From TrEMBL, chain A:
Lineage of the organism: Bacteria, Bacillati, Actinomycetota, Actinomycetes, Micrococcales
GO cellular component, one term: plasma membrane
Official protein name in the record: Sugar ABC transporter permease
Transmembrane segments: 12-32, 77-99, 111-131, 163-190, 211-234, 272-292
InterPro entries, per the entry: ABC_transporter_permease, MetI-like, MetI-like_sf
Amino acid sequence: MRHRLRRLGAPLLLLAPSLILLGVFVYGLIAANFNTSITDNHTAAQATGQEPVTTVWFQNYIDLLGSDDFQHSLTNLVLFTVVFLVGTMVMGFGWAWMLDRPDRGEGFFRSIYLFPMAVSFVASGVVWRWLLNSNQGESASGLNRLFQMIGLDFLQNNWWNNITFGITAIALPAIWQLSGYVMALFLAGFRGIPEELREAARVDGASEWKVYRLVLFPQLSPIALSALIIIGHMSLKSFDLIMSISKPANYQTKVPAVDMYVFKSSFNYADAAAVGTILLVIVALVVVPYLVRTHQAEKR
Amino acid sequence: MTATAGAAVLALGLAACGGSDDSSDESTSGEEMSGGGEVEVFTWWAAGSEKAGLDALVGVFEEQHPDYTFVNGAVAGGAGSAAKDLLQSRLQASDPPDTFQAHAGAELQDYIDAAQIEDVSALYDEFGLTDAFPADLVDRLSTEDGAIYSIPSNIHRANVVWANPTVLEDAGLDPAAEYADLDAWYEALDAVEESGQTALSIATTWTQVHLLETVLLSELGPEAYTGLWDGSTDWEGPEVTAALEDFEKLMGYTNDDRDGLDWPDATQQVIDGQAGFNVMGDWAEAAFQEAGAMSPDDYVYFPVPGTDGEFDFLADSFTMPVGAPNPDGTKAWLETVGSVEGQEAFNKAKGSIPARTDADTSDFSEYQQSAVEAFANDTIVSSLAHGAATPIATLNAISDATSKFTTGASDLATFQSELAAANM
C-alpha cells in the first residue's frame, strides 16, 4: 500500500493542478449547469434570489423536446451536420487524393486549400452573408448574380432563407473553411502508408483501383473516423458562423446553440441550461464511443 | 445649497464606506451633492452620432459636477447586445456600474423584479422632472404602483415612414401626398411596385416587429394598442386579426433579402432610390444626414398611415443600480441627464429629441423640430420592438413568432395564437 502510494504520489502531485482546474471549471460547471436545468429558474427575479426556485426535475427537457420550435432547431442541426460532414469528407478526401499523386505544385495547392481555415468564422460569415444574398432577378447580388452572369439562371435560389433546407446553405461556408483541414488529415494518412506496400501490391498485379480499395483505404479508416469526429463535434456546436450570416431571431436558421443564446438573453436560465445539457449529451453520443474505441485500441 | 460642512461630512462618510477610494479631489464646491470620485457610466454608445451625443453630455456633466470624474464604461458591438450580456453578468455578480443605459419602460421589468435597480421617483420630484416631461410619458414610465426606475435622456419616434421622392415621382405619385390610412397607402405601394422598384424596404426580424407594431397601432388606435400590453385588449380578437392581415399584405411589398440585412441597409435602399418607402424609427434621420440628403428634395417623412397624432415612443434612459459604488455620483449623473442643458446638448448631437418639453430646440434640425412638436401634442404610446412596451422575454417570443410567420413557416392563425401566448 505504502509502496503504491509512493509510486503514484509524484505523478498525482504533478497532475493535481490541471486535475483541480478541470474538475472545477469543466466538470464542476457541467454539474452546476445541469443543476440549473432541472429548476424552474425562468426569470431574472429567480436568478437573483428574489423569488423562490424549485426543482422541477426533467420538466424543462420534456417541454423543450416536445415543442415544435425546438424540434425545428434539432432538425436544422441534423441537416446542417449531415451536409457539413459529407461535404468536408468528400472535398477533403478528393483534394488529398489529387495531391497524393506526385505532381508539381503540391505545396502551393496545399496552402491554398488550407488557407480558409485561418479565417475566423465570423469574418467569413460576413462575406458569405453577401454571397448568399437571397435576392433574385434584377436586384440579385452575390452567387445569384454570378449564376446570371454565366447563364445558369435556373440555379438562383433563396439560399439560407428557405424554411426547410435554408440551414444547409450555411453549411457551404463551413465546408469551404474546413475541407482543407480534412485534406491535411487525409494527406498525412496517405503519407503514413509505406511506399513498399503499394509497390508490393503492384508487383502482385493489383490494378490501381485495387491498390486503393484493398491497400490504402483500410489504412485510412482511422483517419476518416478522426475527421468525422472532429468535424462532427464542431458542427454540433456551430454558433458563430450561423450568427454572423443570419440573426438569432431568424426562424429558418435556428439551431439549439442559438436557442440557448436567446433563452439566456431572456433571463430564462433554466431553459438555456437545459439546451446546453442536451447539446452536451448529443456531442457525447458522438465522441464517447470514439474515445472508448481509441482507448481499447491503445490497450491492445 | 447645503452648507459646506454638510457636504464635507458626506464626503467623509463616503470615503469611510470605501465608495470613493479613487477620489483624488476631496474639495467641496458647495454643490448640492458633492461626494466626488469616479462615476462609471455603462452604455453601448461607442460610435457615430451616439458617441457624439455621449461626449456632449459628458461635457455638460463636467461643467455641472466638476468634483466627479466621468468613467466611460461603453461596450461596443451588436447594437447593444454585447453590452447587455456583460451587464447581465456584472449585475448577477453584484458588481454594478454607477449607472447604466437601458430602454425606458417595460424592458426594465426584469431588473426591477431582480431588485437590481432603485426607484428614482424621488429624484423626479427633486429635479423637477415630473412637470418638465409630458404627463403621457410619465404615465408610460411609471410602474403600476407609481414607481419610476429610470430617467430618460432622449426620445425617439418609431412610427415614421421615410420615402424617396424621385422613386415616388417615377411611379406617378405625388411625393407630398399624405395617406389617411393603410388602404390609401397600398395604392401607392402598388404603384411603386409596378415601376419596378422595391415598394417597402425592410430588414431582419426586429425591423419586421417594428413594422408590426406600427400596423397594430394604425389598425387598433392608441387606446387598444396600449391595451395589448396590459391585457385589456384581446390578442385573439378580430381587430388584431385584421391588423395581422395588413401586416401580411405589407410584408408582400418588401425585399426578399430582408433577413440578412439590418436597418441601415434597408434605409440605404430608400436613400439610393432602390426602394420607395421604409418604416423606421427616427434615428434613420441621421442616416439621411450622413448621406448628405436634404428634405424635402431627397427624402420625405410622415407618420405611418393611420397613426397621425400618435407618437410611438422609445427612450434611452439611465438607472440607479442597487449597490452602485458611488451613489452620489449616480445622482449627479442623473441630474445632468435630466437637466435642460444635458438634454439639449445630448439630443442635438444624437439626432433625437429631449424628453423635456421646456428645452430650447430652436437650433435643432427640421425633422427634430417636427418631432418635438409632435411629442408635445400627440398621444404617446410605447414601442414594442424597442423595449418600452414589454419585458425582454415577451419581446423575444414575439420576435420568434414574427420570424416564423414572415419566413412562411406558420399561417396567420398560428401567428396570432403564438402572439397571444407570448403575452400571457
